[in-house]
Amino acid sequence: MTGREVPRQELAAVCDVSVDTVRYYQTRGLLQAPLREGRHAWYGVEHADRIREVRELQRKGFTLAAIKRVLDGELGRADVDLAAAIHAARGDGEREDLLTLDEFARRSGVPASLIQAVEREGIKLGRTVEGIERYTTADIDMVRAALRLLEFGLPVGELLSLARDANDAMVHLANRAVEMFDEHVRKPIADTAASDDAAAAQLVDAFDSLLPAVTNLVANHFRRVLLAEAEDRLR
């Protein structure tokens, strides 16, 4: 893009995004206001650079709300690298792997109405991308497992109630775990590291070590408790 100012449609084409995306970034405060001449809006190199920066941060796993904090200077380099590690751990696909609800339902074999019923219970399966709900191929096995439970005759209503209770408990547990990481790992590293690069490396290393330890602990404990309860019921 040259130094000349261009209309929104040309800016979108140069940055390989839709006009709606440019407009959405503006409504979220991610893009500087354009130059106005009457009813016309004009965009320059700084707008193209900002869009590319937003897209790069999205690829690293940042939500748009977090991206705004980065752009506003509220989050530093170490947090950017930590977000990239979280993004990688989630296994999020690139843009071309994102599916609409109907595509996700067709590929998973689970009715869209059932997916929506689960989400109405507060169990979010998809993720919001530029204001639109999308799903990833990584979630297909999870919803197929849910369908398998129904095939054994478990009632939909009771399963949804159980899923809601489990989700509430897991959200509470996850919030506590994140608070502990923030207070006892992230903040001390940020305060004592010799540089931003050193802090980023230490944070990512700590996250990569703690995530499997915590998730294995929770999963194994639940399995042990579940089997103990099942055994007690059969006595």
With strands numbered from the N-terminus, the spatial order across the biggest sheet is 1-2
Would you count the extended β strands for me?
4
The level of helicity is 55-70%
State the end-to-end distance: 74 Å
Rg (C-alpha, Å): 22 Å
Order of helices and strands: HHEEHHHHHEEHHH
Write the layout of secondary structure elements.
Blueprint: H1 8-15, H2 19-27, E1 35-37, E2 40-42, H3 45-59, H4 64-71, H5 77-90, H6 101-108, H7 112-120, E3 127-129, E4 132-134, H8 140-151, H9 156-192, H10 196-234
Antiparallel strand pairs: 1-2, 3-4
Helix pairs in contact: 1-2, 1-3, 5-10, 9-10
Summarize the structure.
The protein has 235 residues and is mostly helical. It has ten helices and four strands; from the N terminus they run H-H-E-E-H-H-H-H-H-E-E-H-H-H. The mean pLDDT is 87.
Keywords:
235 residues; 10 helices; 68% helix; two-stranded antiparallel sheet; flat; 5% strand; mainly alpha; single chain; two-stranded antiparallel ribbon
Explain what this protein looks like in three dimensions.
By secondary structure, the protein is mostly helical. The chain is 68% helix and 5% strand. It has ten helices and four strands, in the order ααββαααααββααα. It has helices at residues 8-15, 19-27, 45-59, 64-71, 77-90, 101-108, 112-120, 140-151, 156-192, 196-234, and strands at 35-37, 40-42, 127-129, 132-134. The protein has a two-stranded antiparallel ribbon with strand order 1-2. Strands 3-4 form a two-stranded antiparallel ribbon. Strand 3 (127-129) and strand 4 (132-134) form a beta hairpin. Helix 5 (77-90) packs parallel to helix 10 (196-234) and helix 9 (156-192) packs antiparallel against helix 10. The termini are far apart. The mean pLDDT is 87.
